[in-house]
Amino acid sequence: MATMLWKSLLFPLIFALAIAPVPVPSHALSPRQSQPSITIAPTATEIQYHGGPLLTTPNTVNIYLIWYGAFSRNDQTSVTDFLASFTLSNGLVPHQPTVATWWKTIETYKDKAGNSVSRTVKLVKQIGDIYSLGKNIKRVQIANYVRNKIETKVLPLDSTGIYLVLTAKDVIVERFCMGSCGFHNSISLSHAKSRIIYAHVGNPSVQCPGFCAWPFSLPAYGPPGRALVAPNGVGSDGMVMNIATILAGAATNPFNNGYFQGDPLAPLEAVSACPGIFGEGAYPGYPGNLKVDRLSKASYNAYGVNGRKFLLPAIWDLTSSKCRVIL
Length: 327
Description:
Layout: H1 2-10, E1 38-41, E2 48-49, E3 60-68, H2 73-84, H3 99-103, E4 120-129, E5 136-137, H4 139-151, E6 162-167, E7 172-173, E8 182-188, E9 195-202, H5 209-212, H6 234-252, E10 259-260, E11 291-292, E12 299-300, E13 302-303, E14 309-310, E15 315-317, E16 322-326
Parallel strand pairs: 3-4, 3-6, 5-7, 6-9
Antiparallel strand pairs: 1-16, 2-10, 8-9, 11-12, 13-14, 15-16
């Protein structure tokens, strides 16, 4: 537990159905053309199923994306390319592993009827908002904001989707950078019996890059070392890592009675149970062995659309009770 406590000081652990961010040197590996292999990293955490529903239907988890504030084009295309990569066929990508490969571990999570979590993620609709709530926002405001967008039909009602609010680098959100890099939760609507799932992730490039974009930026206090080069930019890759963590948590623990370990109010979920682990051989302060782009020197472990490279966190493997990383 001392190791977990130490990690929690460096990497965002997810609270209130929140998501902890996902994790320095690494050595260069040449891109692999064959089917990816999987390696298992040990941890002391144990994820348990608490009997609640998961996001199992339909076959796709629909994402409704809200860009709150001013984002660079690079930030936007990095995130949308990441989300598009979930549906990318392995046969259409020249290298392995892919973002879709990473999600396959999440598919092994099943509900009490034996139904697996939906096999892919898809961006269905996105809208923008230039600071209608100001630049200092409470979490309850995010919930009410999403509810309003659905009730006014700006966004459709989808009880099996995720309404994801991304906030720009100059927006302060309650508890963001203060023990959390984002969160997911659920709310009810006045005209519907079902609950809908919403989530938040912030751009950490200015407020807390060493906390919510590690290992691409170093924490103010921590072990010595060099930050890794981000393939898409510190803010962009920080958001991608945390979006990945939140999507995994929301799909496997949407209503706080699915898969998690520990306190239901501060659960360790499918990805947050493996903080700081991205590659084989990871240990506190070291993300593990990663691929390194020969030209840019950027570190990554998964391929996406449009030639994108991403760094994605380890996922808790239910069969082995260990953290699984893609190679």
